[in-house]
Amino acid sequence: MDRSGKPRVVLGVSGGIAAYKACELLRRLTESGHDVRVVPTGSALRFVGEPTWAALSGNPVTTGVWEDVHEVPHVRIGQEADLVVVAPATADTLARAAHGLADDLLTNTLLTARCPVVFAPAMHTEMWEHPATAENVATLRRRGAVVIEPAVGRLTGKDTGKGRLPDPGEIFEVCRRVLARGAAAGRDLAGRHVVISAGGTREPLDPVRFLGNRSSGRQGYALARTAVARGARVTLVAANTALPDPAGADVVPVGTAVQLREAVLKAAEDADAVVMAAAVADFRPARYAQGKIKKREGREPEPVDLVRNPDVLAELSAARPRPGQVVVGFAAETDDVLANGRAKLARKGCDLLVVNEVGEDKTFGAEENEAVVLGADGSETHVPHGPKEALADTVWDAVVHMLNAG
Known about the structure:
Blueprint: E1 8-13, H1 22-31, E2 35-40, H2 50-57, H3 73-80, E3 83-89, H4 91-98, H5 105-112, E4 117-121, H6 125-129, H7 131-142, E5 146-147, E6 151-154, E7 160-164, H8 168-185, E8 193-199, E9 203-206, E10 209-211, H9 218-229, E11 233-239, E12 249-254, H10 257-267, E13 273-276, E14 283-285, E15 306-308, H11 312-319, E16 326-333, H12 337-348, E17 352-357, E18 368-375, E19 380-387, H13 388-405
Parallel strand pairs: 1-2, 1-3, 3-4, 4-5, 8-11, 8-13, 11-12, 13-16, 16-17
Antiparallel strand pairs: 6-7, 9-10, 14-15, 17-18, 18-19
Helix pairs in contact: 1-2, 1-8, 3-5, 4-7, 8-9, 9-13
């Protein structure tokens, strides 16, 4: 940190068309109280000029090791940083970082940094999928760097595919979580694949109506963000959420409980852990009306018959498609919270159950949460009221413990 106590962040910017999006990331970092030094490559300055970076950061901008030599910037900047984030990180920058090249200020900074390093790649799909890039990414992750999976969407020109820079706000959330954990915390989910469900399923009644619930998906998204920051490969099965995709997560959108079951079971085939944070409807209408159900004057509506939906959590717990897989459930209760939670934990057969009390003004849609994490071994971990990321980290702490013990 600098003398004012602000965390020192180095924002590296590579020469890609997505460089302009780094301005938004820089704004979020500075406005949230970070001291940011921008280190662009020479190519990056062809997309966004030096005056822009200097004005937004309030710090000088240099690209080469021959500027301000008396301050030894090629060593000092990396040594003093609390976090280095490279956004966008082109295929060329990833390759140079993986092979330890140091031909400009950014690559020198990466070699001297002993703090957490985050790369947010952006490139065409073919470049991201090339074996050389895949090996470079694997090398960087093995060394402890967080390499965020790129998003899927519109690329340069008319092309669409995987390789788009994630939303700058979501990259900021990853950086915030990495900084909060610090270098000493490590990346304890590195090399692990985790599957998370989030949101609330909707069961169609007719073309315009459905049976649903109040779940916003915020807790599941917090679980995804924290898992990315801890180094995991994340698959997020999202049911009817209105939230931006978490940076680094492969998002699978679904609507109904049946669709969620199919997506989760497929993703869980090679997963080390599955966290069922979604609010999955227990029932669905027995019949789907092909046309809108009309209100008829003087007549009461026909009763809606319900049938049970598949119990995805119980099915996962029983099947365990991968040996040693950890399964975590969530229970939203309105009364007798712990008693109902213990009964559900035994009934579902999962390893951990996160129990919280819900209601119109509790949990659903809120930025904060409080819960008790129950273990099949009889353990109880109380998580006080606070940010949903805090609960997410408590869940992952328990999951990591179980994975390492197994």
